Amino acid sequence: MKVEDIRRYAEIMKEFGLSELEITEDDNKIRLSRTVTAEIKLPAAAIQPAAEVREEPKSEDDGLYLLKSPMVGVFYHAPAEDAKPYVKVGDQVKKGDVIGLIEAMKLMNEVLCDCDGTVESFVAENASPVDFGAGLIKIRV
After folding, report:
1. What is residue 14's three-state secondary structure?
2. pLDDT per position as a tens digit, 62-82
3. CA torsion angle for 91, 92, 97, 100 (degrees, to 10)?
4. pTM above threshold 0.70
5. Which residues of 56-86 are buried (b: 16+ CB within 10 A; e: fewer)?
6. Residue 9 phi/psi, 5° resolution?
7. In the CATH scheme, what is the code of domain 51-140?
8. How far is CA 141 from the centre of its chain?
9. What is the pLDDT of residue 22?
């Protein structure tokens, strides 16, 4: 096998992203291998640290219900940046009302209220990353 042949095989490996190539010609056998590294570019929002959840200690008699995130993603108070929020502090909510959106894997998912009451405060800030089970809003039931 000639050096030019080996270089050509190396170029083929590079072109097609192969990590190994084995060739047998007559009684000659050659095996080429290389380390393939992938560069992954994430959007800036994906690499920001998760926002701290401002959960206040809950006393037994405060009457506040903590609505928690059903998934991991980014929580939004409104359907668009320039739109009014789904709910505000002081609003009456009923079971099944949309209280916000969570963006997960480029999909917008409605977050539904699971009790009746009055919105007391937001725990998660607008456009902040949230984990599964993290507090979103507090509701007086």
Report:
1. helix
2. 679 999 999 999 999 999 888
3. 20
4. no
5. eeeeeeeebbbbbbbeebbbbbeeeeeeebb
6. -65, -40
7. 2.40.50.100
8. 31
9. 83
Residue type at position 49: P
Digit-coded pLDDT (tens) for 80-98: 888 999 999 999 999 999 9
Tell me the C-alpha distance between 91 and 114, whole Å: 15
Distances (CA, A) of 135 to 22, 44, 122: 55, 24, 9
**Type of residue found at 48:** Q
For residues 3 and 135, what is the distance between their CA atoms, to the nearest angstrom?
Answer: 64
Asked if 79 and 102 touch (Cβ cutoff 8 Å), the reply is no
Whether the pLDDT of residue 46 is over 80: the answer is: no
Q: Which two tokens stand for residue 72?
A: 């991991």
d(CA 102, CA 128): 10
Q: How far is CA 64 from CA 7, 47, 55, 104, 113, in A?
A: 70, 33, 12, 27, 14
The segment(s) of the chain belonging to CATH 2.40.50.100 are: 51-140
Give how far the C-alpha of residue 26 lies from the chain's centroid of Cα atoms, to the nearest Å: 53
Q: How far is CA 19 from CA 9, 10, 11, in A?
A: 12, 10, 12
Cβ contact 48:97 at 8 Å: no
